Amino acid sequence: MLRGSCLCGGVKYQIDGRLSCAMNCHCSMCRKAQGSAFRSRASLRSADLKFVQGEELLTFYESSPGNHRGFCRVCGSPILSKFDDHPKYYGLPLGALDDDPGVEPKLHVHVSSKAPWFTITDDLPQLPGAPQ
Ligand SMILES: [Zn+2]
Ligand SMILES: [Zn+2]
Predict the structure, then answer these.
(1) How many angstroms does the Cα of residue 104 sit away from the middle of ligand 2?
(2) For residues 16 and 63, is the Cβ–Cβ distance under 8 A?
(3) Count of other CB atoms within 10 angstroms of residue 71
(4) Per-residue pLDDT tens over the stretch 51-62
(5) What is the Å distance from ligand 2's center to 78 Cα?
(6) Ligand 1 center to residue 79 CA distance, Å?
(7) Nearest to 51 by CA among 30, 22, 82, 80
(8) By the 8 A CB rule, do 41 and 93 touch?
(9) 46 and 55 in contact (C-beta within 8 Å)?
């Protein structure tokens, strides 16, 4: 069981399942959505995530067609992404987790959009665009 919550504590969720596809995304949309150099994210089955409280605070922004980024409307914390093409999966920004997910990002993607002020200093693979 993994727990996560937003900055204000209004949204709390639990995950009963495995996270997969952990990676750091350097695309400009993720940078803006996170307000940081990149977004560390993973995938999970949508059926594995349950809201403990505050689901009504979740607000979605469709950052590109079919990609809905959900955030807490009180504090702005990114909570999850929904995909029209893959409704059985969510994208999960790792920063909102309160527990160790037991996975770590294994690659950098969209490195061609990387912030000029950030240097990748690890040895993980770097892809210029999206993962295959
Ligand atoms: Zn919040
Ligand atoms: Zn991205």
Answers:
(1) 17
(2) no
(3) 22
(4) 999 999 999 999
(5) 13
(6) 9
(7) 80
(8) yes
(9) no
User: How far is 97 from 78, CA to CA, in rounded Å?
Assistant: 11
In terms of DSSP H, where are the helices of the chain?
Answer: 28-34
Tokens linked to 79: 């909570």
CA of 21 to the centre of ligand 2 (A): 13
Beta carbons within 10 angstroms of residue 112's beta carbon: 11
For the record, the structure tokens of 17 come out as 């399942």
Gap from CA of 129 to ligand 2 centroid (Å): 10
The first and second tokens of residue 80, run together, are 């999850």
Q: What is the pTM of this model?
A: 0.94
